Amino acid sequence: MITRSHNTVFFGGAGVSTESGLKDYRSEDGLYNTVKKYKVSPETILSHSFFVAYPDVFYDFYYNYFLSSSAEPNSAHFALAKLEKEGKLNAVITQNIDGLHQRAGSKNVLELHGTIYRHYCPRCKKEMSFESVRSLCGGVPRCEKCGSVVRPDVVLYEEQLDERVIEAAVDAISSAELLIIGGTSLAVYPAAGFLHYFQGSNIVLINRGETQFDNKASLVFRDKIGDVLSKTVELIS
């Protein structure tokens, strides 16, 4: 399917990064079901209203589960980067905020939910470097220009996705001949709804659990996404 396709797009979620040691969100061992120490759910902590009201708790959580990680790209990230380099993959659309696709070498990455590598002041828009925020070890970063609390450039609950990223993702999916979906339960909207724009020939789905799109896929794999993608690249390169 990849060798026949003139336009292949990958759409991925948290499961792409679990093989790098990061938690996903909704599985039995995921972030939402295992983190209890804050007395409120991680979903609540990752909301806009909670960030505004309790930035100290937000940043303690954000540092512990996002900024302090030493995760490196895994075989899935490297396989996708190689497919792009060889002209066999047009775009990566990701729900992840960890930047591992770019670190593996992917260039055309559409980050639906933003990235932990950008931080800015919501009042005066001055940016703060990733290294500066990380060095605070969970403390609340403040803008050196106006003193406001700096925020990560990620889409929190209660917030809208970036319109430009939405348009680019919809355009990529609607023009694709082959759509490879990996490491996502397809339970998060509006992101999962973008798949309804696909008008191409084949969907390949790689996920450990069942999804609502299984019956629309030409191929479904329940194996590790890194194993499937790296073996695929080995066979067609």
Overview of this protein structure:
- This protein has 237 residues and is of the alpha/beta class.
- Helix content is 31%, strand content 16%.
- It has nine helices and nine strands.
- It has helices at 31-34, 42-45, 48-53, 55-67, 75-85, 100-104, 130-134, 163-175, 225-236; strands at 8-12, 91-94, 109-111, 114-120, 127-128, 151-154, 178-182, 202-206, 219-221.
- The strands form two sheets. The protein has a six-stranded parallel β-sheet, covered by helices on one side. Strands 5-4-6 form a three-stranded antiparallel β-sheet.
- α6 links the parallel β2 and β3 (109-111).
- The longest helix has 13 residues, at 55-67.
- The relative contact order is 0.19.
